[in-house]
Automatic annotation (TrEMBL):
Record region (Disordered): 235-261
InterPro entries recorded: Multihaem_cyt_sf (IPR036280), Multiheme_Cytochr_ET (IPR051829)
Entry protein name: Doubled CXXCH motif domain-containing protein
Keywords, sorted A to Z: Signal
Coiled coil: none
Length: 261
């Protein structure tokens, strides 16, 4: 029995263990697993004990407007790395073939807990101290979603135009340049670095899918600028102020030189 469900049993069951256990929403809402530090150690099994529905197939066969899903392509289906029919958000990120091959996402990669007191503005001193509120959002998009769903920064990369228009110039292979540039990449716990590098050879869609091909936002993500062999000592203007390491909770190991393994 999960900690969440165990903490959510009704008072009736606590008084009479023989009575059927029924979830108590308020108790579940304030379960220790929804807060730090407990959520930092929560497993997917802990989360899915109460939230199993997020992985169940539930895509409409027909939209409210009458468009059949089988006859229309969603935006995330427009790169060669996605196959099959339309699917739900969580299933695409956790159980799709591509997600399982190149990602190691878990529930707590995106969900770091929440504070029910901070679901509306100025509701607690914590919200003011930490720089605002997310209005019922248990995920901070700027530090999670934007990592893989921001725009490709073609100007900084020196490309003559958007990747869709120029990829044939590079044989649709990002490693034409990146075999020697920014070679320290994907070294974070929520990705499978070796699998990404292998899949990206000769198929720019593997890279572009997460670096502009499925852009939700009009802005780019300021990726940490990890040092790589042969990297110029001088930091270009566009990179000044950028972090040089990934977030501590996602690091999978560092060397004495400060590079991630």
């Amino acid at each position: 029995m999960s900690l969440v469900f165990g903490a959510a049993l009704s008072d009736a069951h606590a008084a009479d263990p023989k009575s059927p256990p029924t979830p108590d929403y308020q108790r579940a809402r304030y379960s220790a697993l929804h807060f730090k530090p407990a959520i930092s150690k929560a497993t997917d099994a802990d989360c899915l004990a109460c939230h199993a529905e997020v992985l169940k197939p539930s895509v409409r066969e027909t939209s409210p407007a009458g468009v059949r899903a089988a006859d229309a392509k969603a935006w995330y289906q427009r790169t060669s790395t996605y196959s099959g029919t339309q699917d739900t958000f969580h299933r695409r990120h956790l159980t799709s073939d591509f997600a399982k091959s190149v990602m190691a996402l878990s529930c707590t990669t995106c969900h770091e807990g929440h504070d029910p007191r901070d679901e509306h503005p100025l509701s607690s001193v914590t919200a003011q101290r930490d720089g605002g509120f997310r209005l019922r959002k248990s995920v901070v998009p700027e530090t999670t979603c934007l990592k893989c769903h921001g725009q490709m920064n073609t100007a900084v990369m020196g490309l003559p135009g958007p990747w869709r228009e120029t990829r044939e110039m590079f044989q649709n292979d990002c490693l034409t340049c990146h075999a020697a540039i920014r070679t320290t990449r994907h070294q974070v716990s929520y990705l499978k670095p070796d699998a990404i590098e292998a899949a990206g050879k000769g198929n720019g869609d593997v890279c572009y899918g997460c670096h502009g091909g499925r852009a939700w936002y009009r802005i780019t993500y300021p990726y940490p600028r990890h040092a790589w062999p042969g990297m110029a000592e001088e930091t270009p203007d566009w990179a000044k102020g950028r972090p040089t390491q990934s977030e501590a909770r996602f690091q999978i190991g560092t060397t004495a030189q400060g590079q991630e393994k």
